[in-house]
Every structure is written in structure tokens, then in C-alpha cells.
Amino acid sequence: MEPAEAEFLAEKELVTIVPNFSLDRIHLIGGDLGPFNRLPVEVPVWLAINLKQRQKCRLIPPEWMDVEKLEEIRDQERKEDTFTPMPSPYYMELTKLLLNYASDNIPKADEIRTLVKDTWDTRIAKLRLSADSFVRRQEAHAKLDNLMMEINTTGTFLTQALDHMYKLRTNLQPGEGAHSQDF
Fold it and tell me: Considering only CA atoms, which of 144, 126, 134, 143 is closest in space to residue 165?
């Protein structure tokens, strides 16, 4: 999956906004939204960003987008050998989008950006170590629980490497009915 595709999917996630306008429900293909009456309402990220850019709302950051919670997530990720559950499958994309367009509504935005990047880097390093171990041991399958969009960074390389390893293994092993020749 390309980064733009991941961002597109992240834009469908719901966030809470406080609109500074009044409007009845709006009917969209993906479902009804609203009413917008100066009370908190959940909307997709794409709409929240659009309204924020037009200064029509204040964004309330997701519950997990908090320094203390992100420090816990980062520390847990560093401590565990396996991948720990993330607050959203698109946590990295959501962080980027929300901090790029609504950082004035998110307390400690710079710290949040750093914590999410630290968590991402830890997960990528863990993925690379796992892939290296997987290839060295010539494993046939792997368990990728709680792995999210990080797999996109190594997915193509890893699948191509595994394909080449498979071809090399099958070429080195004599097939059925094949006889070796002595010269």
C-alpha cells in the first residue's frame, strides 16, 4: 500500500469536533453526519480538516493523542519483544494529518509528534530484526500480530527476498525423478 492510500484510509477515521456553526444533519454516501449545533460531534478526519481549514470548528484530539498515554505506548513497545497493540491502525497517518492541520488544537503537539515517531522507529527496528531473523532461519511463515502500516515499509522488499529464497531453495534441491550427473 502506498503512503497516499494509507492516508486516504486514515481520513475515514472518526474524530470529534466542536463546530462554531449550526446545521442540520448532512446526508453523505458514507452515512449521515451531524447535527452541527456547537456541541461535540464525530466526523471523518477529512471533514474535520476541511472545516478546520475554513475556521468552522475546533478539533478535539483522539483520546490516545496524549503525552502520558503515548509515553506508555512507547515504553511498552520498547519493553516487549513482540509488537504491542496500537491505538489506531493509522496512528502515524492520523498524527501527521492532525498535527499538520490542527496543531493549535492539540496540547503539546511537538512532544506528541516526537513520541509517535519514537514508537514508529522502535516498531520499524523490531520489524527489521524480525525479518532478518526470519530470513536467516529460513522460516516458512511468521506471526505478525499487531503489525499495522509498518509492514508497508518492508513488505515489497521482504516478499521479493522470500520469493528469491524460495527459488534458490527449489533449484538446489533435486526434484522428483531428477538424477544427478557426475562429470
Answer: 134
Grid cell at residue 36: 452541527
Cβ atoms of 52 and 102 within 8 Å: the answer is: yes
Tens digit of each residue's pLDDT (9 = 90 or more) over 101-140? 999 999 999 999 999 999 999 999 988 888 777 777 777 6
Other beta carbons within 10 Å of 115: 23
Q: How many CA atoms lie within 13 A of 138 on its CB side?
A: 7
Could you give the C-alpha distances from 105 to 23, 47, 181, in angstroms and in order?
22, 16, 74
Q: What digits encode the pLDDT tens for the residues 3-61?
A: 889 899 999 999 999 999 999 999 999 899 999 999 999 999 999 999 999 999 999 99
75, with CB counted inside 10 A (0-12, 13-18, 19+), is middle
